[in-house]
Specification:
Layout (H helix, E strand, L loop, with lengths): L11 E3 L4 E3 L1 H18 L9 E4 L4 H12 L4 E7 L3 H18 L3 E5 H5 L3 H8 L3 H19 L4 E3 L4 H13 L3 H4 L5 E2 L8 E3 L7 H10 L16 H15 L3 H14 L23 H9 L8 E3 L11 H6 L2
Parallel strand pairs: 3-4, 3-6, 4-5, 6-8
Antiparallel strand pairs: 1-2, 5-9, 7-8
Helix pairs in contact: 1-9, 2-9, 7-10, 7-11
The chain binds Fe4 H S5 and zinc ion.
Length: 323
């Protein structure tokens, strides 16, 4: 198997593109796909300042790394869910990347906020950890963006995440959620940051290969609460289909993107009467949680400066030059 670009021995086969590439050409290929998506879908403008949601995993750390290499200088936000060793190691990896990039990282800590991690909090709330986690992460990441003056929040959701979520929503005809996802969701004034997913069309396998080949030190373990999640089953099923019919996932998600464009403009979300952030109810879920379990102190974000400012190689010129 030879690299399609240079003819050397290939390191990765990309069946969806009917090609194979060596390590160097794969890195260029992947970076170019991400920067092209940023340009094509107008994800980040010159006037934007970007915050990347980092979990310590391969997707978010690779995204943070690529954006900075491409000249989209961005800082990170980490939510400490209070899951013992897993959270400790995850933050360690996120900080390593912050130092490598010479960028700032912010942290919201659930144990500091509620004196409980996501596990205990979900028990007292009688709510599934992932559902509660989703509510808290959405709120805190948006708050971090707005409070610290960033205009765009970037997340590392990849093609497999999007395809499995879409598959699940279709399978159960969850129409209310069906058209809520996109590669980019516009912000609203001073209370809702724009959200972007630059890896929307990049597979999980490609992101993992990029992380390994770029020597990104990421946390290999999955969050313990992800065990048994339906999305993992959907990913497995879609990967099986992909083996016999390469490029199915990307066609599925691209087809969705074309259709989502045709949907009506989203109405402005209502705002929480207490904190002013988006809410479906008069007082948002997080304000109610803080009232019940908070320490009495305001929600505080920690900011960590990088240990040293290291120059990050600029790929913006290279990304344009490669065909
Ligand atoms: S939702 Fe659930 Fe994830 Fe939160 S509790 Fe862990 S598995 S981290 S994306
Ligand atoms: Zn609120």
């Amino acid at each position: 198997m030879k690299c399609r670009v240079c003819g050397k021995e290939a390191n990765i086969r990309l069946s969806a593109y009917n090609t194979a590439l060596c390590a160097d050409d794969f890195l260029t290929f992947f970076e170019r796909r991400v920067t092209r998506a940023v340009q094509k879908y107008h994800l980040i403008d010159q006037t934007d300042s970007t915050l990347v949601a980092v979990s310590g995993g391969k997707d978010s750390l690779s995204l943070w790394y690529i954006l900075n290499r491409a000249g989209y200088l961005s800082d990170g936000i980490y939510i400490d869910l209070g899951i013992d060793e897993y959270s400790r190691v995850s933050f360690e990896k996120a900080r390593l990347m912050a130092d490598r990039l010479g960028r700032r990282i912010y942290r919201f800590s659930l144990p500091a906020l509620f004196q409980k991690g996501i596990g205990d909090l979900s028990k007292v709330m009688r709510r599934a950890p992932c559902s509660l986690c989703g509510v808290l992460k959405r709120y805190l990441m948006n708050k971090a963006c707005i409070d610290a003056g960033y205009t765009v929040l970037a997340t590392g959701h990849n093609l497999d995440d999007e395809a499995s979520a879409l598959f699940g929503n279709l399978l159960y005809w969850k129409e209310a959620y069906l058209y809520k996802k996109s590669i980019s969701l516009e912000g609203r004034g001073d209370y809702l940051a724009k959200k972007i997913k630059p890896f929307f069309l990049c597979s999980e396998r490609e992101a993992a290969a990029y992380a390994i080949l770029s020597r990104i030190d990421y946390v290999y373990e999955e969050c313990p609460y992800s065990v048994g999640a339906k999305t993992l089953l959907y990913k497995e099923l879609l990967n099986k289909i992909e083996v016999t019919s390469p490029a199915t996932k990307i066609r599925f998600v691209k087809g969705y993107l074309e259709r989502v464009k045709e949907q009506e403009a989203r109405p402005d979300p209502e705002r929480c009467a207490r904190c002013g952030y988006p809410s479906y109810t008069e007082t948002c879920n997080v304000c109610r949680l803080v009232e019940r379990f908070g320490t009495g102190e305001a929600i505080r974000i920690e900011c960590f400066e990088p240990a040293q400012a290291t120059a990050t190689p600029d790929i913006s010129a290279k990304a344009d030059a490669v065909v």
